[in-house]
Design brief:
There is one protein chain. The chain is of the alpha+beta class and about 625 residues long. Among the domains are: about 45 residues; about 60 residues, no CATH class; about 325 residues, DD-peptidase/beta-lactamase superfamily (Beta-lactamase), CATH 3.40.710.10. About 35% of the residues lie in helices and about 25% in strands. It is built from 21 helices and 24 strands. Strands 2, 3, 4, 5, 6, 11, 19 and 20 form an eight-stranded mixed beta sheet that branches. It has a five-stranded antiparallel beta sheet with strand order 13-12-24-23-22, sandwiched between helices. Strand 15 and strand 16 form a beta hairpin. The longest helix has about 35 residues. It is elongated, with a radius of gyration of 35 Å.
Length: about 625
């Protein structure tokens, strides 16, 4: 008799085989899925990871372009520096002009912004295991660097951290002292920084390079405006490396070189800049002013030959400045009421429109009433029968109102706009603001036009003012101011800036007549500015400071003084604007600024070797 196996046992064996097959299928599927993820979905990532183990991707940092100024004549201090005085010139307390020569470049250019390598100190906390050693490091570094023990200890306590920066831009003396301590986990590395060899010299125009996150970025001035041109473009090196990290250039590699930044050659004349900065500092200190501005421009082209403000700053140590407002270039970024320096524009509009001539007369009674307001002259003086030339000579407010009412509000506003007042000049500097002539809109009260005629109730930047007056000096042609003469790229290719005429504002005949009136103003009003053998055209302005809260004016003893003038008057080589805020113990700009204006004018006439008239 044949005996068959149990059906239950057969079923159990078949089930185990089925389960095993299912498990094998699942495992195979998982393996296939994993391979798909590795090779297809994440293939690029793993490929890069593998390449990084054998290759390196290194960003190549470009050199930032330099900023250079003109040096028409190599001054005597240059010879001293070249003769071995360089170290002394670059030291503490050195003459900024002499220091500037240390960074001399070819073609009579001087560098005012260059690149320099400094030592960076960093810690590797994971190399310092002993608590006592950490305490010693914190204490020792604190004494050398002037950094708190707590801040260093906090970084040391990041036990597994391979990199903790402690101090940038270390001096040679600091580096030597730290190395002599023989501390564990202490390392140095060179890092590039922007360096300004002449310190505060031209600081508002240059700006500085600061940090935006971890990147060094130009801020304010030219460093900010020309950030793209100066910074260049980074490169990339992709190459294999051996077991100890050395590049293997015998194998395939990819090199995309960095493109160094372009250099800027400014229109600024270094010697003129140094002279006007010295004069500005002297006059602000003499009258205890709160701030000051000076601009020198070439009226025929719009080239800025010098530009300075006080208070200034050292861009090497910009982080020490507590009030960021100091970084703003007051010449282009801050508005003020100009006062009587507005009167030449009013006269230009009157003459050019055919409503008056320099010898047109009116009778000044000392005041004029308009729409419930009374306008008076300075010190409430009256001058009787007066010509338009006398109106400028004596700075008669009612005379300016007489001219404005003669031509009417629409024509007056048209000429204000032609002179570019109330709009940006277009200079190649960041942060420029437009003047505020909003009170002269069509339909505005008559009093707004009357006060604007002598410089009240309006606001303007110093650059806007000198550019507009430069049109009178330049036969009626308004030029766009500019401060970069040429851009030189890393290959040596030069792009020059060409002068741009914005428009013909007034006729050459009108410009000549107004210039003659302003020469008479200097000759009959400003004795300190009379220069034998030279005709100088000029006008002052003494303006009250508006109170933004009340709409009126602050304490009448607080004023802003301005002096603008050009020489030689008939064919000017330069136009100068000098301004001081809130001088103490002096009432009028003709007294506070005349001597400084005359000093700058004499210097420029000598600098450009302009002979006196015969």
């Amino acid at each position: 008799m044949v005996r068959h196996g149990s059906p239950q046992k057969e079923y159990s064996a078949n089930g185990r085989i089925a389960i095993l097959l299912i498990l094998l299928i699942i495992i195979a599927g998982a393996i296939v899925t994993r391979l798909f993820l590795i090779q297809v979905v994440r293939g690029v990532s793993y490929n890069l990871l593998a390449r990084k183990q054998q290759q390196t991707l290194q960003e190549l940092v470009p050199q930032r372009g330099e900023i250079l100024v003109q040096d028409r004549y190599k001054s005597s201090s240059l010879a001293a520096v070249e003769g071995g005085g360089g170290q002394q010139a670059a030291g503490a307390g050195a003459d900024p002009l002499a220091t500037l020569h240390v960074a001399m470049r070819a073609d009579n250019y001087q560098a005012v912004a260059i690149n320099k390598s400094y030592q960076l100190l960093f810690l590797v906390p994971k190399e310092i295991k002993d608590e006592a050693e950490r305490a010693k490091i914190a204490s020792s570094l604190s004494l050398v660097l002037g950094v708190s023990v707590e801040s260093i200890t906090e970084k040391l306590n990041k036990a597994d951290d391979p990199y903790e920066p402690i101090a940038h831009k270390l001096s040679d003396d600091q580096v030597a002292k730290i190395k002599n301590l023989n501390l564990k986990g202490i390392h140095f590395v060179l890092e590039g920084w922007r360096f300004y060899p002449a310190e505060n010299f031209l600081s508002h125009t240059i700006g500085f390079v600061g940090f935006s996150g971890n990147k060094q970025v130009g801020q304010y001035g030219l460093e900010g405006y020309y950030q793209k041109e100066l910074s260049g473009a980074p490169g990339l090196l992709e190459a294999a490396k051996d077991a100890i990290g050395r590049y293997i250039f015998a194998s395939d590699y990819n090199l995309e070189p960095a493109r160094d930044g372009s250099s800027l050659v400014l229109t600024i004349e270094q010697n003129i800049q140094f002279e006007v900065e010295s004069e500005l500092k002297a006059v602000v200190e003499k009258w205890s002013g709160e701030a000051g501005t000076v601009i020198v421009m070439e009226p025929q082209t719009g080239k800025i030959l010098a530009m300075a403000n006080l208070p200034d700053f050292d861009p090497n140590d910009y982080s020490k400045v507590k009030n960021e407002d100091v970084f703003r270039n007051a010449a282009v970024e801050k508005l003020y009421e100009p006062g009587s320096v507005m009167k030449p524009f009013t006269m230009s509009a009157g003459i050019d429109s055919g409503k008056i001539e320099p010898d047109t007369t009116y009778t000044d009674t000392g005041s004029v009433r308009i729409g419930g307001y009374t306008i008076t002259n300075a010190a409430e003086k009256s001058y009787g029968l007066s010509t338009m030339t006398k109106v400028l000579e004596k700075s008669i407010n009612t005379g300016a109102v007489f001219v404005q009412r003669k031509i009417g509000p629409d024509v007056f506003r048209d000429y204000v706009e032609k002179f570019g007042l109330g709009e940006k000049t277009g200079i190649d500097l960041g942060g420029e603001v437009a003047g505020n002539f909003g009170g002269l809109k069509r339909g505005s009260p008559e009093i707004n036009f009357a006060t604007a005629a002598f410089g009240q109730g309006i606001a303007i930047t110093p650059l806007e003012l000198i550019a507009a007056l430069g049109a009178i000096a330049n036969q009626g042609k308004l030029m766009r101011p500019y401060i970069v003469d040429k851009i030189i790229d890393a290959d040596g290719n030069e792009t020059e800036t060409r002068p741009v005429m914005v428009r013909q504002v007034i006729s050459p005949d009108t410009a000549s007549k107004v210039t003659s009136m302003l020469v008479s103003t200097v000759n009959n009003g400003y004795d300190k500015i009379k220069l034998k053998g030279y005709d100088v055209a000029g006008k002052t302005g003494t303006a009250q400071i508006p109170d933004p809260k009340t709409g009126g004016y602050l304490d009448s003893s607080e004023t802003i003084h301005t002096f603008v003038g050009w020489a030689p008057a008939s064919n000017p080589k330069f136009i100068i604007l000098l301004k001081i805020d809130k001088p103490k113990g002096i009432n009028f700009a003709s007294n506070s600024l005349a001597s400084s204006f005359a000093n700058i004018t004499r210097y420029l006439l000598n600098y450009y070797e302009i002979p006196p008239r015969e």
